[in-house]
Design a protein that fits this description.
364 residues, alpha+beta, Molybdopterin biosynthesis moea protein, domain 2, SH3 type barrels, two-stranded antiparallel sheet, 9 strands, 12% strand
Length: 364
């Protein structure tokens, strides 16, 4: 299995079903995608899909959190968001159950984190972002050694960390850039979110501090209170790392999603200034820089498939090298390497032709 951009997925077989925002099945696993399928998925906002890996069909990638759990969490967050807009009480029980479900899967999954933002259900960006931040906060919280109760409190806070923005619909829905005055008002959302959560007796004060402190920076340059170093609660520090990572690897209207390797380098540059160094190190050892099943181009021009991860050196995955750009075929040699130039959306044309002639991959 591998992640493939939807626009390049025609003719490929789905390895995982595509689920819609209401829980309905858009396309079932095993479907061979046509150009009509691709256009329909793109209209629904599905930018990438999981497809069968032609050369190594036995490669299986386990997501840190399954699509159904992500969908249920997004629905709980959406209900909370809508309640705040109506000035109603947040359905805290539903949010807590969603956080528990995510925490349970994170705690039980021993594998490096699969890149959640690569395979999105068709849903509003805001709610998906909140779920992604929750998942990655809990991945880091697990690595940090948090117990169950604290993981759930962190998860609730991460799901609701931007809830203050629900009181600013005119700003969150604005299509163009914000004015200076609007940006200043947007920076009030952590304080607003904190007050909303603090006043709900069913929500832990620690969860509320995630909303308050996720934009604080280790060097004191953040907002809303300019806290520095140990003045920031560990939940706020964890959420800041996860929020930054998710912003980098997610597609935005003004830029494409970054590859995890690019995002990892930026996080390392931010360590010690915006982000706490120890947490950045733990986080980067807890996520897959090169997701298993990816087709990669090595620096020497050879092409291969990522077949496994090294938890101590995420920048050095196991790669089965099988071809080069000219179409020359090699015996499948498995190597641990950091000499990867980039991830490819598919096999290079000449390599694919040679592999088809060899019978290694089927004709499309």
């Amino acid at each position: 299995m591998r992640v493939c951009p939807t626009k390049k997925a025609a003719g490929k077989r789905l390895a995982r079903s595509v689920i819609g925002p209401s829980g309905g099945l858009l396309l079932a696993a095993g479907t061979v995608l046509t150009s009509q399928h691709v256009r329909a998925l793109l209209r629904r906002g599905v930018r990438a899909v999981a497809v069968e890996q032609d050369l190594f069909p036995g490669i299986e990638v386990s997501e840190t959190v399954c699509a159904e759990t992500q969908r249920d969490a997004a629905e709980a967050v959406k209900r909370a968001w809508e309640a705040v807009r109506r000035n109603d009480a947040i359905p805290a029980g539903a949010v807590r159950r969603a956080a528990e479900a995510v925490a349970m899967e994170v705690r039980c999954n021993p594998d490096l984190g699969f890149v959640l933002s690569a395979v999105r259900m068709a849903d509003e960006f805001t709610y998906k972002h909140l779920v992604d931040v929750c998942v990655y906060s809990l991945v880091l919280g697990k690595a940090f050694g948090l117990g169950w109760d604290d993981l759930v409190r962190l998860g609730v806070g991460a799901l609701l960390h931007d809830i203050g923005k629900a009181r600013m619909p005119e700003l969150t829905a604005k299509p163009g850039p914000l004015s200076e005055e609007e940006r200043a008002r947007m920076k009030e959302h952590p304080e607003i979110g904190f007050r909303i959560l603090r006043d709900n007796f069913e929500i832990s004060l620690l969860s509320a501090h995630v909303a308050l402190q996720h934009h604080e920076k280790w060097d004191g340059s953040g907002y809303p209170r300019g806290l520095k170093g140990s003045e920031i609660h560990e939940f706020g520090l964890v959420a800041a790392v996860a929020d930054t990572w998710c912003a980098l690897v997610s597609e935005r209207p003004y830029r494409k999603a970054m590859h995890p390797v690019e995002a990892a380098r930026i996080l390392m540059d931010m360590a010690g200034s915006a982000l706490e160094t120890g947490l950045v190190r733990k986080f980067l050892l807890s996520v897959a820089w090169y997701p298993t099943g990816s087709i990669v181009l090595l620096e020497d021009g050879r092409v291969g498939v990522v077949t496994g991860q090294d938890p101590d050196f995420p920048e050095r995955p196991e790669v089965a090298v099988v071809a080069d750009l000219s179409g020359r075929i090699f015996p499948a040699e498995r190597v641990r390497t950091s000499k990867i130039r980039r991830i490819l959306p598919d096999w290079p044309k000449k390599a694919k032709e040679a592999l088809r002639d060899l019978g290694a991959i089927p004709a499309s």
